[in-house]
Write a structure and sequence with these properties.
Structural class: alpha/beta
Number of strands: 7
Oligomer: single chain
Strand order of the largest sheet: 3-2-1-4-5-7-6
Low-confidence stretches: 1-7
Shape: globular
Number of domains: 1
CATH superfamily: Vaccinia Virus protein VP39
CATH topology: Rossmann fold
Number of helices: 9
Strand content: 15-25%
CATH class: Alpha Beta
Order of helices and strands: HHHEHEHEEHEHHHEE
Helix content: 40-55%
CATH architecture: 3-Layer(aba) Sandwich
Distance between the termini: 46 Å
Length: 230
């Protein structure tokens, strides 16, 4: 293992700990999402996690749903290595698989009964890239399947969204992270990431041919929506 790869792997291994300190509710988020999926899926289900990262979501899902099977896809190999180790440690390798790449790397069949995309969409520009991601997810789901999207949202030109951003920065400060971390969060949300209003999120989901869109989660700027494939 080269020094660069080792460094990337170590960063991936620290990812969940940092996200817990940056995003309020991060540790509980997988079970929040699962609680909604359990209300609409049967005893057996095939579930896709797009941008699965270190596998926190799928490991939590699989630990509580022994009848379901799971596939996670992510373009960052160091993150996937952490995910594979988590699944192996929890003895989940027979039901959880990880694929290096984007959702386009997946075959069209077999289809998925449900899909999740957590903390990914707001990283993509709204120049057709967001919509393309949602369309690719839609294409790989069964008719009537359920999709949960979680990400940052808001019109940061409005005082209400700015107030939520300010509260988020205070949360980061209360976690003991330095001012540089707060500045980085603000820069990411206002400059680097593509944070769009909820109306745009709903519009993108509908344009990708999802229906029955409803918001199921909200903490400061972090929101979650559940939708169904037409």
């Amino acid at each position: 293992m080269t020094a660069e790869i080792q460094e990337r792997f170590e960063e991936a291994g620290q990812y969940d700990a940092m996200m817990t300190r940056v995003f309020p509710g991060y540790e509980q988020l997988p079970l929040v999402v699962l609680s909604h999926l359990r209300t609409c899926l049967g005893q057996a289900a095939r579930v896709l996690d797009v941008g699965c990262g270190t596998g926190a979501t799928l490991t939590a899902f699989a630990s509580h749903q022994p009848e379901w099977s799971f596939i996670g896809v992510d373009p960052a190999e160091p993150m996937l290595e952490v995910a594979r180790r988590k699944a192996s440690a929890a003895d989940l390798n027979d039901r959880v698989a990880f694929i290096h790449g984007t959702v386009e790397a997946l075959p069209d069949r077999p289809k998925f009964d449900a899909a999740t995309c957590i903390l990914v969409e707001h990283l993509l520009p709204d120049d057709g890239t967001k919509l393309h991601l949602l369309e690719e997810v839609h294409r790989r789901m069964v008719p009537g399947g359920w999709f949960v999207l979680v990400g940052l949202h808001g019109d940061l030109s409005k005082p209400s969204a700015q107030g939520k951003l300010d509260a988020w920065l205070e949360f980061v400060a209360l976690q003991g992270l330095p001012k540089a971390a707060q500045d980085n969060v603000r820069h990411r949300a206002t400059v680097e990431d593509s944070v769009v209003p909820e109306k745009r999120i709903r519009g993108l989901l509908e344009e990708a041919r999802f229906m029955n869109v409803k918001r199921i989660y909200q903490v400061q700027l972090l929101g979650g929506w559940q939708a169904q494939k037409v």
